[in-house]
Amino acid sequence: MLIIRLFALTALPLLLAATCQPADRVPGLPPALKLKPLYGTWLHSQEEDRGDTLVYRPNTYNFPPSRGRTGFAIGPGGRFTQYDIAPTDGLQGQAGTWTQRAGNRLRIQLSSENATAYELEIVRLEGKKLYLRRLEMAK
Predict the structure, then answer these.
(1) Rounded to whole angstroms, how far apart are CA atoms 46 and 15?
(2) CATH code, domain carrying 107
(3) Is the pLDDT confidence value at 19 over 60?
(4) What are the backbone angles phi and psi of residue 10, rounded to the nearest 5°?
């Protein structure tokens, strides 16, 4: 009887620990991919796009010359900034928020009045290369 009690006392915590998942994991992606590696500023590497899959790299990447690059920044606590090409060819930031959605998606809501929410489907993250699909949401 003592052996059964000892087994129950040691097996239950191990079972619970094995089934717990970190809160910062992006659902639908491999367990090793967590949300934290997505934090930072990402710029569009349009030269590497394939079909509807968009490629982004960190803003520190040595990009080839371009007539401008759009991008975004993802931060903890739902912070999001979308970067568009400004009239003077620089970048113009627009604040917003992100929230996790079902599967491997982030819902993006920009703070301007006329901005329509959209979703970013995270296809994969390979090292410092982020593959996304942008999904427009129904109005």
Answers:
(1) 45
(2) 2.40.128
(3) no
(4) -95, -30
Instruction: Give the percent of the chain with pLDDT over 90.
Output: 56
Taking a C-beta distance cutoff of 8 angstroms, is the pair 54, 133 a contact? yes
Write phi, then psi, for 15 (nearest 5 degrees): -65, -45
Q: Give me the domain span that covers residue 43.
A: 2-136
Task: Answer with the residue of higher pLDDT: 21 or 80.
Answer: 80
Q: Taking a C-beta distance cutoff of 8 angstroms, is the pair 29, 101 a contact?
A: no
Is the pLDDT at 4 greater than 60? The verdict is no
In the chain, the amino acid numbered 41 is T
Contact 12, 20 (CB under 8 A): no
Q: pLDDT at residue 33 above 90?
A: no
Share of the chain above pLDDT 70, in %: 74
**What Cα–Cα distance (Å) separates residue 35 from each residue in 59, 67, 114?**
18, 30, 28
- Average per-residue pLDDT for the chain: 81
Do residues 109 and 102 touch, judged by C-beta distance below 8 A? no
| Domain count of the fold of the chain | 1
DSSP state of 45: -
**Contact, 129 vs 55, CB < 8 A?**
yes
